[in-house]
Design a protein that fits this description.
This protein has 376 residues and is an alpha+beta fold. It is built from nine helices and ten strands. It starts with 7 loop residues before the first helix and ends with a helix.
Length: 376
């Protein structure tokens, strides 16, 4: 590849042909004019099927291929990228909510203005604490800016065009622990926890069943209303709950005792209706059980007929005329039908046993009542 290095367009095209998308920093922004949809600089024409040596889809970049960093030209200094074949610089474990980075390897003649010039490309700088021993701490406004600053780790910095040792250095950028970052992170976590508790409380209140209406205080007017409701079957439950609350509150006294006795008497007369209602439901249940038993008996009769058909087909006179596959199917069908018939038969027998046990219990009760009558 004999391309002049001074031609940036040709260099970018050659790097793209090799499947290495330039990721460098040229000028002020960290990633200048980089279009991820094209995989190359926006100054290069888009990939077309007619371009020689390229397919319709560019080849994917292997994950183990080193990222090509570019030279960064700043106003007062120049940053030269590290060797792409070397392993990436080691970093410590990232503290929670980290917004501060440690920057070492600064030139001895580096000033705070130069530090700002280099690292303000990564984002808004909140504070810089510079030491006399060629290192500093930089605090950014947001956490994602720290990742951009770590991109500069390993770069060689040179002030102007000087080659003096005091004007050069190799940057080492790493995560730094800061009490302010930790405090802000803890405040944020507490705020998220409060929001989560509030959300759960609102959800619980939404799903909580409505509270019962408050019971009115006792008065002669309310007593007459409750007495009328006790005689109405549809409003009995509400009225009897009100009556219970009044008695538990201690509303019964010598003046109101007759009224409460009348309401209790109305509640007692409701017992007969409940007994009759229960008997009607039991009768409906017995009729449904009898109907189910008759339907189950009819189903069992039909199962017996189907099984008889299978058994007749399995006799030698008809069996020899079926093919091997047909015989297999008939055998499987016969087995399935017999299993289902046995299950239904056991269910019907269980119902009949329950009825016999109930009848025997009734007979025992009748005998006991007769015996008690004779003894009395």
């Amino acid at each position: 590849m004999t391309l002049p290095m001074s031609d940036p367009t040709a260099w970018a095209t050659a790097m793209n042909n090799l499947g290495m998308a330039p990721l460098g920093i040229a000028g002020q922004p960290i990633l200048p004019d980089f279009d991820p949809a094209l995989g190359m600089m926006t100054g290069i024409p888009p990939i077309t099927p007619m371009m020689p040596g390229l397919g319709i889809v560019p080849p994917p970049i292997p994950p183990d291929m080193p990222v090509v960093k570019e030279i960064i030209h700043c106003k007062s200094c120049t940053l030269f990228p590290p060797n792409p074949n070397l392993p990436p610089p080691a970093t410590r474990e990232r503290p929670p909510g980290c917004k501060t980075v440690f920057v070492g390897g600064l030139p001895e003649n580096g000033t705070e203005q130069i530090i700002v010039e280099v690292f303000e490309q990564c984002g808004e700088i909140i504070a810089i604490r510079k030491s006399k021993k060629n290192f500093c701490h930089i605090r950014f406004a947001e956490e994602y800016m720290v990742d951009k600053a770590l991109y500069l780790s390993g770069y060689r910095i040179r002030l102007g065009s000087s080659t003096d040792k005091k004007d050069t250095g190799r940057l080492h950028v790493d995560f730094a622990q800061a009490r302010d970052d930790l405090y802000e992170w803890e405040c944020k976590q507490r705020m998220l926890a409060r929001e989560e508790r509030h959300r759960r409380r609102m959800e619980e209140e939404r799903l909580r069943p409505p509270s019962p209406p408050p019971v009115v205080h006792y008065s002669d007017h309310e007593c007459s209303i409750v007495a009328e409701k006790l005689k109405d079957d549809s409003k009995f439950s509400e009225a009897v709950q009100t009556l219970l609350t009044w008695i538990e509150r201690g509303e019964v006294n010598r003046r109101s005792a007759n009224n409460f006795y009348s309401m209790i008497q109305s509640a007692n007369s409701h017992v007969r209706r409940l007994v009759n209602e229960k008997a009607a439901h039991e009768k409906d249940m017995e009729e449904a059980k009898e109907k189910f038993k008759q339907a189950l008996s009819g189903i069992l009769i039909q199962f017996e007929q189907i099984v008889a058909v299978y058994h007749s087909a399995s006799k030698q006179k008809a069996w020899d005329h079926f093919t091997k596959a047909q015989r297999k199917n008939i055998s499987v069908w016969c087995k399935q039908a017999e299993e289902i018939r046995n299950i239904h038969n056991d269910e019907l027998m269980g119902i009949r046993r329950e009825e016999e046990m109930e009848m025997s219990d009734d007979e025992i009760e009748e005998m006991t009542e007769t015996k008690e009558t004779e003894e009395s």
